[in-house]
Design a protein that fits this description.
Elements (H helix, E strand, L loop, with lengths): L5 E11 L4 E12 L4 E5 L6 H8 L6 E7 L2 E2 L5 H7 L4 E4 L13 H13 L3 H14 L5 H6 L7 H13 L5 E5 L7 H18 L2 E5 L3 H7 L2 E6 L2 E7 H6 L4 H15 L1
Helix pairs in contact: 3-4, 3-6, 4-6, 6-7
This protein binds adenosine-5'-triphosphate and magnesium ion.
The site of adenosine-5'-triphosphate has 11 residues, from helix 1.
């Protein structure tokens, strides 16, 4: 088997809320291979978002290693990390407005990624931005290019964010509940575009979701997180058919209960 594009080993994240530091992510390890989609699931507060933030180098107090194509991101100085972030590893958040600046047109924001990471000139970067907007499925990409974020719907904004995140064909995309804020039809369209584009680019995805239907439909493997730890990881078919950990079984049982209720 080829070596993983992302190898996370014994990653911990500590939060200092008041007294003793508390591990909200507790010595987790997992790997992602080229083009693979790994789901990260678990109850609210178990540490999924903190894991995502640690992978992006957004939380400083992480321990362990995060090897992206052999480079340990956890040991990189911030200046080097800034070059990697958005180019080799990028992130899509639950709320697209987190990633978009309200005062700039969307086209400029996508073009910026090309200028910063690819060194393109203004006109070239704008053309590249337009092409990305077409690729995420906008029929009228020119209009979206000139729009401000507040002029777009939630689903359109999230597609703009995906265009930004995929602009440099990153090796790894971290998507934290990317469609939770969208209605069900839009969710399906956005996820379909995202996974297609990632497939074409060979980008591996860590897909954080609480929706086991999404896990079943889009993901190859799943890691189940509970109270900061990964308690089980397996291929999706195997996990659904034969959950090994009682917590996984309970999670699947609860999801089935929701479907029946
Ligand atoms: N800014 C903060 N200050 C203190 N505690 C925090 C902070 N952010 C998160 N936490 C705690 O860290 C733990 C992990 O939070 P995290 O956001 O990673 O959970 P999550 O799995 O993403 O949950 P959700 O499914 O609700 O998004 C939680 O127990 C949370 O209470
Ligand atoms: Mg979260």
């Amino acid at each position: 088997m080829k070596s993983p594009v992302l190898a996370v080993r014994d990653l911990s994240v500590f939060l200092q809320d008041g007294g003793q530091p508390r591990a909200v992510v507790d010595t987790i390890s997992f790997e992602l291979h080229e083009g693979e989609i790994l789901a990260l699931v678990g109850e609210s507060g178990c540490g999924k978002t903190k894991t995502a933030e640690a992978l992006m180098g957004l939380v400083p107090t992480a321990a362990g290693s995060i090897e992206l194509c052999g480079t340990n991101l956890a040991a990189l100085p911030e200046a080097r990390l800034r070059r990697v972030r958005g180019r080799d590893i990028s992130m899509v958040f639950q709320e697209p407005l987190t990633a978009l600046d309200p005062v700039f047109r969307t086209g400029n924001q996508i073009a910026d990624v090309f200028r910063r990471h690819r060194g393109l000139g203004r006109a070239e970067a704008r053309r590249a931005a337009l092409e990305m907007l077409q690729r995420v499925g906008f029929a009228d990409a020119g209009h979206v290019l000139r729009s401000y974020p507040h002029e777009l719907s939630g689903g359109m904004r999230q597609r703009v964010v995906i265009a930004m995140a995929m602009a440099c064909r990153p090796r790894v995309l971290v998507a934290d509940e990317p469609t939770t804020a969208l209605d069900v039809t839009t969710q399906a369209q956005v996820l379909a575009r995202l996974t297609e584009m990632a497939g074409e680019a060979g980008t591996a995805i860590l897909l954080i979701t609480h929706d086991l239907g999404i896990v079943a439909h889009y993901c190859d493997r799943a890691a189940v997180m509970r109270m900061g730890r990964i308690v089980e990881q397996a291929g999706v078919d195997q996990l659904f058919a034969q959950p090994q950990h009682p917590y996984t079984a309970a999670l699947l049982g609860a999801a089935r209960g929701n479907l029946l209720s």
